[in-house]
């Protein structure tokens, strides 16, 4: 598939019961990704479903189906999830990695590494995808910006939390209380589990629903979701960001950047900072 189709197709597969994903080839022009399922999907029907769900998105160029032993398939992908340094002081690691794995790559001078332990399940977010890494870096930037208040904000809302990686990172970076929102109830116990593995207490408060189910506002809101969903929920994400507060958006392709910025400027936010990598963009917006 073309690189810009990878995240949407991955989301599409995980919503339909994918057990895991493995990137087999990534050369900047074509991604080859293998997803595993307990039952064989109807490939032709899925292609049609994807085209209907995302008519403006590029579709996979070719789909093939192979049968593999369940035991080997469910465990072999783990070798590809190793400790990963992100930003200046974040270390994302699976629970099976040794406690000191990755520690030899020290953080920024005078800053100890903060260990985020993610046990991969159905919730998206291990740090290896560019959109998640950008969101983590943008979050760390927002919480260490010299122009920001001296103390981290008291509350953060993580919309589309998936594995909970961003909410957990926020807690480790000093945010007192994190709320984690997702439409998938299956993912939410994973947030609590990963928070416990990461030594975060209290764990993020998990909620099932979309942004329109919440009232009040938060000084810091983050959402790592595809741009189409970010546009659809623009008004609620803007409303949930407190006046003067910060909204971080990731999961945005470079080709979608201008349209999304225009949409959020019309809702009363302005662009403060951005990060780019591998065709993806993370935006930090400030509500006036």
Summarize the SSE layout with pairings.
Elements: H1 6-15, E1 20-26, E2 31-36, H2 43-53, H3 70-76, E3 84-86, E4 90-93, E5 114-117, H4 130-144, E6 155-159, H5 165-172, E7 177-182, H6 188-197, E8 205-208, E9 218-224, H7 227-232, H8 234-240, E10 241-253, H9 257-265, E11 269-277, E12 280-287
Parallel strand pairs: 4-5, 6-7, 6-9, 7-8, 9-10
Antiparallel strand pairs: 1-2, 3-4, 10-12, 11-12
Helix pairs in contact: 4-5
Considering the chains and any ligands shown, give keywords for the structure.
Rossmann fold, 9 helices, 288 residues, 7-stranded mixed beta sheet, 12 strands, 26% strand, 2 domains, 3-stranded mixed beta sheet
Task: Give a quick summary of the entry.
With 288 residues, the protein is an alpha/beta fold.
The proportion of residues in beta strands is 25-35%
Q: What global shape is seen?
A: globular
Order of helices and strands: HEEHHEEEHEHEHEEHHEHEE
CATH topology of the largest domain: Rossmann fold
Task: Give the proportion of residues in helices.
Answer: 25-40%
Q: In terms of per-residue confidence, which ranges show pLDDT below 50 for 5 or more consecutive residues?
A: none
Main sheet overview: 7 strands, mixed
CATH superfamily of the largest domain: Vaccinia Virus protein VP39
* Number of DSSP-assigned strands: 12
CATH class of the largest domain: Alpha Beta
Mean pLDDT: 87
Structural class assignment: alpha/beta
Question: Quaternary status of these chains?
Answer: single chain
CATH architecture of the largest domain: 3-Layer(aba) Sandwich
For the termini, the CA-CA separation is 40 Å
Strand order of the largest sheet: 8-7-6-9-10-12-11
Total discrete domains: 2
Helix run count: 9
The radius of gyration is 19 Å
């Amino acid at each position: 598939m073309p690189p810009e189709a990878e995240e949407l197709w991955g989301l599409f597969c995980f919503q339909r019961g994918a057990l895991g994903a493995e990137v087999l080839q990534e050369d900047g022009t074509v991604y080859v990704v293998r997803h595993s399922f307990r039952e064989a999907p109807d490939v032709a029907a899925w292609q049609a479903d994807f085209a209907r769900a995302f008519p403006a998105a590029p579709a996979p160029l070719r789909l093939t189906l192979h049968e593999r032993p369940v035991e080997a398939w469910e465990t072999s992908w783990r070798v590809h999830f190793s400790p990963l340094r992100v930003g200046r002081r974040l270390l994302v690691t699976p629970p099976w990695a040794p406690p000191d794995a990755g520690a030899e790559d020290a953080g920024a001078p005078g800053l100890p590494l903060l260990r985020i332990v993610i046990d991969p399940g159905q919730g998206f977010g291990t740090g290896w995808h560019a959109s998640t890494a950008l969101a983590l870096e943008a979050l760390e930037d927002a919480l260490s910006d010299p122009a920001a208040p001296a103390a981290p904000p008291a509350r953060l809302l993580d919309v589309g939390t998936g594995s909970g990686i961003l909410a957990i990172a926020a807690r480790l970076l000093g945010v007192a209380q994190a709320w984690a929102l997702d439409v998938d109830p299956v993912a939410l116990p994973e947030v609590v589990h990963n928070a416990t593995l990461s030594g975060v207490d209290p764990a993020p408060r998990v909620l099932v629903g979309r942004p329109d189910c919440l009232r009040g506002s938060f000084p810091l809101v983050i959402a790592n979701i595809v741009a189409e969903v970010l546009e659809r929920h623009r008004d609620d994400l803007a409303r949930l960001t407190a006046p003067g507060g910060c909204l971080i958006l990731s999961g945005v392709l470079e080709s979608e950047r201008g349209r999304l910025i225009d949409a959020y400027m019309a809702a009363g936010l302005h662009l403060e900072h951005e990060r780019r990598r591998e065709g993806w963009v993370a935006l930090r917006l400030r509500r006036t």
